[in-house]
Amino acid sequence: MSATAVTTPATSTLRRRALGVLAAVVAALAIWAIGALAGVDFTVESPGQPATDIGAGAIVTVALGAALLGWAALALLERFAPRVARPVWISLAVVVTMVSLVPLLGVEATGGAKLTLGATHLAVALPLVALLPARRR
Length: 137
Known about the structure:
The protein has four helices and two strands; from the N terminus they run αββααα. The chain is mostly helical. A two-stranded antiparallel ribbon has the order 1-2. Strand 1 (43-44) and strand 2 (52-53) form a beta hairpin. Helix 2 (56-80) packs parallel to helix 4 (111-131).
């Protein structure tokens, strides 16, 4: 007897979404690492707060948290509004991504740090938008 793996649509969706989360985290970390290797100073100072050095751990934690929250929001939309889940979630993802860039305008940091950190925000969003929503039928 031979064993063959059966891929169900649910398994395929789960794998694609897990890949999206992994890709988002790896992309953000890769952009941060390229910036670090290029000598970018990731010290960020928010008004009224002490300076913070944004390290790899912070990048992974925030990227993973954002990706999992995005997945959870999509799952809720698919459960309670399945007909509009995809377009609503994609719109929400774009808005959240744009809003996530706003704090970069109000912090003290080098131009390289702002550019690199902004790129990490986009690097998290792109694979999530590409891989999390259900494929069109």
